[in-house]
Design goal:
The chain has eight helices and no strands. The chain has 179 residues and is mostly helical. The protein has one domain: AhpD-like (Up-down Bundle), CATH 1.20.1290.10. Helix 3 packs parallel to helix 8, helix 6 packs antiparallel against helix 7 and helix 6 crosses helix 8.
Length: 179
């Protein structure tokens, strides 16, 4: 039978385990000339969408849901904080990942979230976005809003992929930091 463990050693191991994990991105995008040029163009496209008639709340829900699906901690952190700062309720933010079972989203928002999921998971579905998913979104949004929605889904997926590939750390974003 093993002897009694050393309580001091256990405390030291526990303290080491509980230390805050620090992470560094694999690539510093902000010091990389090429990455900054690309980001400038993506951000320019994002400003066009932000100025569109697609509701701002819907835009944040779409960015948050795609980021959750893609496992992008940085973008999930950013868009949940930006949405809350813009007045989105904590309840709705908490339920974005389970929007199908939630009663707090409008039919239009639900259609946008469905299109976001299908457009984000295109590799998982042989047919890509279904006709039903598209038709449902088209019932709620005009042509310009659909153009903004499709473009937003593409842009957030681009940023998610960049941040996941370089392992951009999450948790330190402040609302409006990149405005």
């Amino acid at each position: 039978m093993p002897s009694n463990p050393d309580p001091q050693a256990d405390t030291i191991r526990l303290n080491e385990t509980m230390k805050e994990t620090t992470m560094d991105a694999r690539l510093n995008l902000f010091e990389n000339t090429i990455a900054m040029k690309v980001a400038k163009h993506i951000n320019s496209a994002g400003r066009v969408i932000a100025a569109s008639t697609l509701p701002a709340a819907t835009q944040e829900l779409v960015k948050l849901r795609a980021s959750q699906i893609n496992g992008c901690g940085y973008c999930t952190d950013m868009h949940s904080k930006d949405a809350a700062h813009a007045g989105e309720s904590q309840l709705r933010l908490n339920l974005v990942a389970a929007w199908r079972e939630a009663t707090v989203f409008t039919e239009a928002e639900r259609a946008a979230l469905e299109l976001t999921e299908q457009g984000t998971r295109i590799a998982d579905a042989a047919g890509g976005v279904t006709d039903e998913g598209w038709a449902n979104a088209a019932k709620h949004y005009d042509e310009d809003q659909l153009g903004a929605l499709v473009s937003l889904i593409a842009i957030i997926n681009t940023y998610n992929r960049i941040n996941v590939v370089i392992r951009q750390p999450a948790g330190d974003y402040g609302p409006g930091q990149w405005d």
